[in-house]
Amino acid sequence: MLLQLTISNFAIVSFLELDLRKGMTSITGETGAGKSIAIDALALALGERADADSVRPGADKADISARFRIDKLPRVKAWLCEQELDEQDECILRRTLSREGRSRGYINGTPVPLSQLKALGGLLVNIHGQHAHQELQKPDHQRALLDAYAGHHQLLAGVSAGYQHWRQLNNERKQLQAEQEKWQAERQLLEYQVAELDELALAEDEFPELEAEHKRLSNGAELLTDCQLALNVLGDNDESNALQLVRQGLKTLSELVAMDSRLGPVLEMVEGSLIQLEEGHSELGRYLDRLELDPERLHEVESRMSKVMELSRKHHVPAAELFLFHQQLKARLADMDHGSSRLEGLDEEVEQARENFVQAAERLSQSRQRYADALNKQITHSLHQLSMEKGRFEIQVHADASAGFSPLGIDRVEFLVSTNPGQPMSPLARVASGGELSRISLAIQVITAQKVETPTLIFDEVDVGVSGPTAAVVGKLLRKLGESTQVLVITHLPQVAGNGHQHFFVSKSSNTDNTETRMQELDEPLRLQELARLLGGNRITDNTLANARELLVCE
């Protein structure tokens, strides 16, 4: 429940701090005094859209804080825990608004986006505005109201999940069907290309190896001649060769080292060179022994390379990349095959998902009908109390799976009413009398609010168009509602205000420089004065005071 509301520099409020209690709180005041300002400020703290014009003239920013008790609100505590926000027995929502239009939100001192502020605010407060009857005429709002009254959170979640699953599979099937049609011509070409490359069967690194082998085979004669020449120079020429010369040099160096040891490192280097030269000479000899001219193999390699180059030009890819291109075509064809296989199995999956959704939607529809029947009786009874003795109310739930699916099910919910005997049931939107519409809307709001889990309910002049004995009934209904939840009521009716457990009076004062709104909690004598004012205007008499005393409901 809302414990405290603190408002600073908002609209025509300089500073205001309200301490609120459980039960029904009445808020009254003269016309234009700003009775709704506190509610507008609270709405900002709950994440509603802000307007920079809301900042009090001359101030830099507006600051609104709302402190709630949440120790008995498990949904709120669970939400705070999920969002990793401080979770205690109390919760403070704060909103600041600068003159430049910058807005900031806080939950328990932690900066949060306004979306989080609004999400938490929806769990804490439900505001019924003076134009709520206009919303009640909309079918979507009627369905939402019935679901909120019935507590259909889990059923709605199941229906929504079923709808999303069916829609996802259905969209996938449509996409695959469209792709299959588009793929028909492409598939024929793709199959031909893959078959042609399969026949070539080019290995991953085969083309670079073919190039190297072709270069070696085509230069075989030159390799034989030059290798023999190199062997002669290195060591096969009997008259003079490199090995012979190096050995002679080593012999001379050995003698020099005996005379000067500083030449030892040079001797070691030349000895290492001799070893390398001998190994090179031996390896070259073995290579030459294996080297053969192979015209037949050269022809095979040239033929293979010719086929590779031909397909390379045909597909406009470098020969070295032909293998990768082949793999890409095969993968594309495999995707098409997988799409075809997937499409064959999707029909059954879509139908099963559709059946699951319809079953969940039908369970929701049946529950809606049960709660609609119970709500019909309660609202009709309430209409009789509100001076509509012959009024009848009915919620019709039309379930039609063939009309289309939605995340909210398959139902069309419609509020119907008949205000006079013999008059047929008609949609709520067609009720002619504004006063009747106000009373019907009020009855619906009060009764459905009893089942909604929101701990604080605010009624902002929802009793417009109600007067006399009917107003007294409205007051009693709101007071009874206040016994189970916190209720704040902005009203101009003394019959309603007198039922409050707590009463605030809103006043406005002006001078040449500024205008300011104040709110004062009234004790019993002051409440009598205010009720008398509401009854008789500014002229308070013994009679209006006596009438006020009759209207005041004490603890």
UniProtKB/TrEMBL annotation:
**The RecF/RecN/SMC N-terminal domain, residue ranges:** 3-510
Gene Ontology terms for molecular function: ATP binding
Do you know which InterPro entries this protein is assigned to? DNA_recomb/repair_RecN (IPR004604), P-loop_NTPase (IPR027417), RecF/RecN/SMC_N (IPR003395)
**Coiled-coil region(s):** 166-193, 336-370
Family statement drawn from the similarity comment of this UniProt entry: Belongs to the RecN family.
User: Does the record bear Nucleotide-binding in its keywords?
Assistant: yes
The cross-references to PANTHER family, in alphabetical order and at most eight, read: DNA REPAIR PROTEIN RECN
User: What is a biological process (GO) this protein takes part in?
Assistant: DNA recombination
One Pfam entry for this protein is SMC_N
Q: What is this protein called?
A: DNA repair protein RecN
> What is this protein's function?
May be involved in recombinational repair of damaged DNA.
Q: Which GO terms describe its cellular component?
A: bacterial nucleoid
Q: Carries keyword Nucleotide-binding?
A: yes
The alphabetical list of record keywords is: ATP-binding, Coiled coil, DNA damage, DNA repair, Nucleotide-binding
